[in-house]
UniProtKB/TrEMBL annotation:
This is Signal peptidase I. SUPFAM superfamilies: LexA/Signal peptidase. It is a single-pass type II membrane protein. Keywords: Hydrolase, Membrane, Protease, Transmembrane, Transmembrane helix. Its EC number is 3.4.21.89. The gene is lepB. Residues 20-235 form the Peptidase S26 domain. The chain crosses the membrane at residues 21-39.
Amino acid sequence: MQGSESTGDKPARREETLGESIRYFCVLLLAVFAVRSLVVEPFNIPSGSMIPTLQIGDFVLVSKFSYGYSRFSFPFSPNLFSGRIFGSEPHRGDVAVFRFTRDTSVDYIKRIIGLPGDHIQVTGGHLILNGIEVPRTSLGHYEVLDENNRLLSGELYRESLPGSGGRSPVVHDILKLTDDGFANDTPEYVVPEGSFFAMGDDRDDSADSRFQGDGPDDLGFVPMQNLVGRAPIVLFSMDMRHPAWQFWYWPTEIRWNRFLHSVT
């Protein structure tokens, strides 16, 4: 006798159409774009201007919502609006990513030293903020290679930068190579409204707001609109002494002690 057709058979699997695949792919791209634009974005540290706080080869995770959003918060910086929305002023001592004043396609990362109305000067290599010398304590000799394999040899200091908005002082390390040159004996700068003053923690190897001329590397005061976000943590780090294609060196170049390292 012919068996009856089973009622428990599973329905045939529906094949995914090309249109659905494209839709899923577009949704995925949109989600990545939204996270990268509005939440967090990784940045690689290519130079030594923030040594010792950040090392060459660090990958920092940048909080995009820390200061609100400007056109520079989005990939390709579309000119959708001016100024900032949901904006909040950064705090003195923040390590921040922002767009270079002379070429807004270039990302910079520095420490915010001065806010609107602050008076800033460097005298004999010492940072003066609002007429008071910023305290620092020597931690001894420090040596490191920069991105050009050049030896940076100097004194490591622990600096206590006055906080802003009622916050405690920001205690962080800086590197001093010399007390000579323009960057160590500057005029007094007064930070204008709507801008901030940024410096590298490698105080003698940083093109920063102390340089206010017309040179191609002069940063000057940075408009608040140029802020991209705050860098609170090092996600991971690689020494990268060898070319990237030499993958067999990768395990030896990972700086395990910098995984999820807090940035202060």
